[in-house]
Amino acid sequence: MNETLHSHEAHIEHPGYGTFIGVWLLLLLLTGCLVGLSHVSQSYAVWGLLTLTPLKAGLVFYYFMHLKYEGPVFKVVVLVTLGTLLIFFALLFSDVAFR
Amino acid sequence: MSGHVHRDDLGSRLGMWLFLVTEMVLFGGLFIGYSYMRYRYPAEFHHGGMELNATLGVINTLVLLTSSLTVVLSIVAVQRGEKQRAMALLGTTLGLGLTFLVIKGFEWSAKFHHGLYPNSPHLATLPPGEQVFFGLYFTMTGLHGVHVIAGLSVLGVMLWWVATDRIRQDRYIHLENSGLYWHLVDVIWIFLLPLFYLAA
User: Residue B36 in contact with residue B155, Cβ under 8 Å?
Assistant: First the structure.
């Protein structure tokens, strides 16, 4: 009985060591850029925070957490969550802006 | 009961992800709170951030990123039936996670020596914005630290299960889900580093 389930799983091509080591190197590089930017000026540091940090998180989600290899349901779950947080963020700051 | 074992790896992973999104909302709420407070007290947050040791923050980032790599590689090793390598990689992850906690411990104890800890008399003399900064710093890095301890405990069990063949080439969903948790802990730290150590 178990065999049917395994054969289904076996169809999925598993990524190898190289892919993940490459992503890790990219993450180290991005961390270096982030630290470098923070030494330039305050506004560079903030721009680094707003662009490089989500990029790093995205790489971890997409590759390390295998989101790339999962079906659409998984991606929708994550996007709905991030969207919800973004709405809360926007609501808070729209309130702050018109106080 | 004819030896049929019901297994749904996809459902198991989806369940784990549903739990992880609740964690994302938990920390997300704190991040939103941080954004507002930083907007309200920019000078105090800048001053508070200067007191933190950015070098230790960056080292801890490299430690956690590498521990995330070793977890994901241990899954590849299990998929290929390389048990010894999987155990070595998981052992490395545990070592790196403990290193993170030790560095965090040094960092916190340095703050305590300077009279900076929740509800301390010295903290009460600081301007309100800095009190908020250190309140958020201790709350967010502390909550993250609790998650590191939880993740390490779970990964310790995973190492035991790989050693005893409970996790093997044809059955490794528990390791995958534990890895997912560990990566999320890593992602949260990816955000904590610039918020407290770099951009403040």
Answer: no
Please name the residue ranges forming H helices in A1-99.
2-10, 17-40, 42-59, 72-97
Q: Indicate the pTM of the whole model.
A: 0.92
Contact in structure between A27 and B65 (CB atoms under 8 Å): yes
The letter for the amino acid at A31 is T
C-alpha span between A82 and A77 (Å, rounded): 9
Task: Tell me if A55 sits within 8 A of A49, measured CB to CB.
Answer: no
Q: How far is CA B197 from the centre of its chain?
A: 16
Q: B72 vs A20: CB contact, 8 Å cut-off?
A: yes
B24–A contact, CB cutoff 8 A: yes
Contact assignment for A81 to B25 by CB distance below 8 Å: yes
Q: Which H helix or E strand runs over A44?
A: helix A42-59
Confidence of residue B198 (pLDDT cuts 50, 70, 90): confident
* Chain B closest-CA separation from residue A54 CA (Å): 8
- Residue B143 burial (10 A CB sphere; 0-12, 13-18, 19+): middle
Contact status of B186 with chain A (Cβ, < 8 Å)? yes
Mean pLDDT, residues A5-34 taken together: 82
Q: State the count of interchain CB pairs (< 8 A) between A and B.
A: 122
Confidence class of residue A43 from pLDDT cuts 50, 70 and 90?
confident
